[in-house]
Amino acid sequence: MYKLVASDLDGTLLTPEHRIAPYTKQVLEHLHQQGIHFVFATGRHHVDVASIRETVGIPAYMITSNGARVHDSDNQLVYQHNVDPAIVASLIQDVKDDATVTIHLYRDDEWLLSKMDEELARYHQDSGFQAREFDVDNPPVDNVAKIFFIRHDHDYLLQYEHQFIEQYGDQVSIAFSTPFCLEVMGSGVSKGAALEAVARRHQLNLSDCIAFGDGMNDVEMLNAAGQGLVMATAQARVKATLSDKAIIGSHADEAVARYLKAHLLDQ
Questions:
Q1: If 208 and its partner were Cys, which of 3, 165, 182, 228 is the partner (CB 3.0–4.6 Å)?
Q2: 154-168 vs 85-95: helix crossing angle, rounded to 10
Q3: pLDDT of 125 over the 60 cut
Q4: How far apart are CA 3 and CA 189, in angstroms?
Q5: Which InterPro entries match (predicted)?
């Protein structure tokens, strides 16, 4: 029996409308009642996730910014790892003149972006978490949990992925959370490393964990957990990378909650 459940949010636990559905909420409540720990493990900002956790109504750890931040069930920051300020400045310099790409920063309690994008509001309907614009010629570079780049053209962003890997090497961690969102974190940051830290705080091992995800930013977590499960709607690159992992249904059908109900909850 697994004692800790970790799940990604968008494309995994949340509906296509980026919300917690009633059935999923009910299953998570039952998990808590049975003494099984739950962890939100996401690329989202911790302010955003705290609001989602409040909607669910259970105490839970939060792994956010792909593992750059970990908050406990009392919302206390228990781990952080920032991107080196010099690298943040350099990354912005690399991309700032490309008008086709939007640059985002997560730092402290802020979400900053190089130009406003109203489409992103649909991801934050329940939390109301709001972004504000920053000056790319005078950017804040300290306390940055992650910097990410959005353009609705995966092949175009792949060029930046290759450039960043060649330029910064192991000074950063790089992953696509969606095909259109390229994310850069500090060296060694991943949901998998954060999950191991959370498990230790619960006096558990990674073998006691089950995890769900759909993005390249979930790969380390799905490999680290005792059992990692991939969503049917996951990126093709994820399925190829994790070809040994079982694939479950779609987030549109609340597949995570249905799997937990069938395999973890007392019947």
A1: 3
A2: 140
A3: no
A4: 24
A5: Cof, HAD-like_sf, HAD-SF_hydro_IIB, HAD_sf
Question: What pLDDT, on the 0 to 100 scale, is given for residue 122?
Answer: 57
DSSP state of 132: E
Annotated catalytic, 10?
Answer: no
**Is the pLDDT confidence value at 89 over 80?**
yes
Counting every residue written for the chain, the total comes to 267
Is residue 5 within 8 Å of residue 267, measured between CB atoms?
no
Superfamily of domain 4-80+189-263: HAD superfamily/HAD-like (3.40.50.1000)
Instruction: Exactly one of 8, 48, 214, 218 is catalytic; name it.
Output: 8
Per-residue pLDDT reduced to its tens digit, 199-219: 999 999 999 999 999 999 999
HEC sequence for 134-203 = CCCCCCCCCCEEEEEEECCCHHHHHHHHHHHHHHHHHHEEEEEEECCEEEEEECCCCHHHHHHHHHHHCC
- Give the type of residue at 120: L
Common-topology check for domains 4-80+189-263 and 85-186: no
